[in-house]
Amino acid sequence: MELFNEHSTIPNLLRNVVANIHNPEETFLIHKRNGVWEEVSYGHTLNCADAVAAFFMEKGIVKGDRMGLMIENSPEYVYYDQGIQQIGAINVSIYPTLSEQEVAYIVNDSGMRAILIGNTFLYKKILKIAANCRNLEYIVPAFTEYQKVSIPEELKVQIIPFDEVLAETGKLKPARLTEIGRIRNTILPADISSLIYTSGTTGTPKGVMLSHSNFVENVKVCLQQIPVIDETETFLSFLPLSHVFERTATYHVCCAQGCRIAYAQSLELLAKNMAEIKPTVMSCVPRLLEKIHDKALKSGTAGGGLKSKIFLWALEVGQDYRKIKEAGKTPGMVMRAKKTLAEKLVFSKIKEKTGGRLKFMISGGAALPKNVGEFFGNLGIKILEGFGLTETSPVMAVTEYHRQVYGTVGRIIPGIEVGIQDIETRQMISIQTHDTFMEDFECAEGEIIVRGHCVMQGYFNKPAETAEVIDKDNWFHTGDIGRFYRGNLQITDRLKNMIVNAYGKNVYPTPVENIYLKSLKIDQIFLIGDKREYLTAIVIPNKENLQENFNLPESFFEKPEIFIAEKEITDWIGQDLKKLSNELAKFERIKNFKVKRNPFSIEEGEITPTLKAKRRVIEAKYAETINEMYAEAVDTD
To answer: Where does the AMP-dependent synthetase/ligase domain start and stop, copy by copy (predicted)?
Structure first.
């Protein structure tokens, strides 16, 4: 049975599953309501989608209209998305954490006609700006408490509860369903499926136009590269569907393959939800894996003694076993016995906390530190890394299930070309495809460029900005620096992040920061040093470790001073910075640092919703402190 054909679009994927894989009564979505996990069938999902389509057809929504969503991951997101897309409307999902000004910009820039809202906080946000949103006609609250919120007198936008939109679920007349089907069949793979606005680390967000073909081809080739995903999987979804990674790697993959999707209640309840749902696959970001890594190490070695010795022994056994397997050899009888014992004493207990059924996790959104990937590999938990951007639908490369090279993001997906271009001369260093893969191939680093089915249609209403990133030969310039290593793509850093010190040395912050993040005392680190003689950093400590070591009350983190002045704390962190500096070249070592009391935040505009640091914002905001670090006498040897 074919999952895809040349006419496949996002609304057709799910209907293909119902026609060929699952009965309509089988479970598709799982979510928690009033403390109880509820299951939603494929049939109910499609009925709700038809109701959404019929409702907005009556309101005059037509193919090409932009329709907004500002809602947490939920069945309601799927009903709305499937409904609008089958009448040719375009999904414009907005990060719930964006400011009122940013939301207003996206609503106006996209020309959005309606928006689905998920909770009271977001509802109040949209009500404040709605009067200044020139094309917005309908606000659709998907929660009952919306009635308790007062409506501004000047508001001319119509409020329509989502329950009213869904009122005709399962009751539509055959003629209406036939009309919906007719429109659905007129949607072409080349038509725009979604506008996804970039995070805007260096300027105004831009609406990335992604077609049905962009998404469908991306899902198709990823399933080819990871052929172990089948219709029995249960994905746990917690990354925002407003981001292209979760949209493709979880939602669209499940729509195509017939997998179940369970929605986590929140990041805070993720561990609890994993134990309850027992997922087989989930998408995640490196920061989550780093936290699991740090917590497991801390728990396993706490207090020393026999427990700590057993834990460290098990990790060593896991590492030896992994390396033998990766070398293509068969572990001997003694090694297999050790691995079995390590599994029983240590690894199984960690795996139980993930639900005990995980086949693998897919890490994306940022580079995963090599030591963290190896740690999970030692436990026998497979982490597949992927790489791409919003502009590339997003996947350009992903780890093959049977071949892991830690510190890389895997093999190029089928059907595209990826080039490495010299940053200064613009000469092509190498061009690789899925078919040219060689396990021992390596090349010099440069900017990563790509062309093929994954590349966006352009930035919405921004031809000049589109021309800046897609050249005359149709190469999309990612702005990322990387190379090929052992046949796989390896990411160094973002081109715009590159630090050039006063002596002309190039420093890519991410790999340096990842070395320092090996310290369990550090939660975040931000490197500084462009046009300076040496590097400095703003360090955010691991709050839990800091509290435990210094017996600090919660009020310590509520003090108005941004930076921690206590010498004993800076000395404590400095010990690890000094030790880890030995792994770096002299010009890459931090010579001075300040300890920030609380993390960089989205609300303060310091990081994007995908947790990428806004370098210009941070450097401008803390310029005085940064200058102080360079004014202080330090040892630069």
So the answer is: 23-460
Tell which residue, 603, 596, 601, has the closest CA to residue 622. Answer: 596
Q: Are 227 and 253 in contact (CB under 8 A)?
A: no
Cα distance between residue 525 and residue 541, in whole Å: 9
What would the two tokens of residue 425 be? 């001369």
Q: What's the pLDDT band for 151 if we cut at 50, 70, 90? A: very high
Residue whose tokens read 């010579």: 591
Distance in angstroms (rounded) separating the CA atoms of residues 491 and 488: 10
Q: Which residues of 99-132 are buried (b: 16+ CB within 10 A; e: fewer)?
A: eeebbbbbbebbbbbbbbbbbeebbebbbebbee
Residue with tokens 């981001």: 243
Check whether the bond before 331 is cis (ω within 30° of 0): no
Please give the span between the terminal C-alpha atoms of the chain, in angstroms, as a whole number.
65
**pLDDT (0 to 100) of residue 633:** 62
- Spatial contact of 573 and 580, defined as CB atoms under 8 Å apart: no
Q: pLDDT band for 303, please (50, 70, 90 cuts).
A: confident
Which DSSP string do the residues of 542-565 spell out, in sequence order? -HHHHHHHHT--GGGGGSS-SEE-
Taking the domains of the chain in order of start, what are their residue ranges?
10-187, 498-631
CA dihedral sign, ordered 384, 388, 393, 396? negative
Cβ within 8 Å of residue 178, ≥6 positions away = none
Question: Mind spelling out the 3-state secondary structure of 450-476?
Answer: EEECCCCCEECCCHHHHHHHECCCCCE
CA–CA separation, 218 vs 30, rounded Å? 25
605: left (phi over 0), alpha (psi -120 to 50) or beta: left
pTM, full prediction: 0.88
- How far apart CA 223 and CA 13 sit, in angstroms, is 14
The CA distance from 538 to 620, in Å, is 13
Which one of 3.40.50.12780, 1.10.3720.10, 3.50.50.60, 3.40.50.1220 gives the CATH number of domain 10-187?
A: 3.40.50.12780
**Residue 303 pairs with which residues in a beta bridge?**
none
Q: How far is CA 487 from CA 89, 318, 400, in A?
A: 40, 25, 12
Which pLDDT tens digit goes with each residue over 237-256? 999 999 999 999 999 999 99
* CA–CA separation, 486 and 441 (whole Å): 5
- Taking the C-alpha atoms of residue 316 and residue 322, their distance in angstroms, rounded to an integer, is 10
Do you find a cis peptide bond into 161, omega within 30 degrees of 0? Answer: no
Dihedral pair phi/psi, residue 94, rounded to 5°: -115, 135
| CATH architecture type of domain 498-631 | 2-Layer Sandwich (3.30)
